[in-house]
Amino acid sequence: MLQTQQQDSISLICHKPIIELENVSFAYNQKPVVNHVNFTVQERDFVGLIGSNGAGKTTLLRMIVGLLAPTSGTVKLFGEPIQQFRNWNLIGYVPQKNSFNPLFPATVREVVISGLFSRNKLFKRVTKADSIKCEEALHAMKIEDLAGKRIGELSGGQQQRAFLARALINNPALLILDEPTVGIDSETQEGFFHLIKHMHQHHNITFLMVSHDMEMIRSYLGEKPKQEAGKIKFYVKHSHDLEDCVETNLTHSLRELRHSMERGKVGV
Ligand SMILES: Nc1ncnc2c1ncn2[C@@H]1O[C@H](COP(=O)(O)OP(=O)(O)OP(=O)(O)O)[C@@H](O)[C@H]1O
Fold first, then answer.
1. Alpha helices per DSSP H over 65-185
2. Distance 8 CA to ligand 1 centre (A)
3. Would residue 268 count as lying in a domain?
4. Which helix or strand (DSSP H or E) is residue 2 part of?
């Protein structure tokens, strides 16, 4: 009896809605781009968004992270309407690479540490603990030797790792990635997917990722989309398809992964 109750409560926890889109639409200057999307991302799902150029994928992500307000419909994050949601530290967002200005005068370390300053804490002082988290994230992404360089001087793959480190520094519960491997060579891409699959399988992180890499999406999320909304297809791997994860410190676990990869075959 007790065991059944425990199992019920575990399955309730596992099916907590993380993102809820209810009839969400968006138009730029009256030109509809996203039309009546209904979709729920549950805890520890991995959702891949596929669609042709201009299908509205980035627009949808920007509504989910609160950078655009839907023209109609509602977005909920972690069960709360987005207008009331304040816990932005739970969300790591890596926008499309080409939305970054290469002349931005910040070092890699500054970019990574800025991930700690959520929208509510713009002027927070950097503590020793913050610096340690930053070094761990840099190390996990194998870019500690680039920490003092200007972000614009890095290659595309190195910049992506810096932005991923920035997204990881808060130990996010939800990671939103917009075409994270665009312009990156195939070996680095392979390492990147290995890394995010590791994060999905070993940590309680929910993923929402836009990608044009059908091979990667199909190999991890299956052949068929779970849902289609206009030109956007949603591919999903549910949490119940995964083994239970043992929750460990994210950056430590990534450091271990990095070391085992250095000894083995795939490069991060
Ligand atoms: N700021 C903007 N003002 C007006 N129209 C825009 C704006 N941003 C995007 N659009 C238009 O909205 C449509 C959807 O753009 P969006 O970037 O969401 O597509 P996408 O699916 O992410 O495309 P891609 O795969 O090329 O990145 C496109 O037709 C685009 O031209």
1. 108-113, 128-140, 156-168
2. 42
3. no
4. helix 2-14
SS3 192: helix
pTM over 0.80: yes
CB 39 within 8 A of CB 83: no
Residue nearest atom 16 of ligand 1, based on CA coordinates: 56
How far, in Å, is the centroid of ligand 1 from the Cα of 12? Answer: 37
Query: By alpha-carbon position, which residue is closest to atom 10 of ligand 1?
Result: 28
Atom of ligand 1 at shortest range from CA of 56: 18
Residue 25 maps to a domain? yes
User: Could you report the per-residue pLDDT of 233-262, keeping only the tens digit for each?
Assistant: 999 998 766 666 555 666 666 666 666 666
Going by CA atoms, what residue is nearest to atom 2 of ligand 1?
Answer: 28
CATH number at residue 188: 3.40.50.300
Torsion over CA of 185, 190, 191 and 193, rounded to 10 degrees? 120
Task: Give the count of beta carbons closer than 10 Å to the beta carbon of residue 52.
Answer: 10
Answer whether residue 82 is part of any domain: yes
Please report the pLDDT score of residue 12 as a whole number.
45
Distance 59 CA to ligand 1 centre (A): 6
Span from the CA of 28 to the centroid of ligand 1 (angstroms): 9
- Beta carbon of 211 within 6 Å of any ligand 1 atom: no
**Whose CA is closest to atom 3 on ligand 1?**
28
| Domain that residue 51 falls in | 2-263
Encode pLDDT of 66-123 as tens digits. Answer: 999 999 999 999 999 999 999 998 999 988 865 556 677 889 999 999 888 766 555 5
Q: Could you give the number of structural domains in the chain?
A: 1
Nearest CA to ligand 1 atom 17: 58
Tokens for 148, please give them. 């003092």
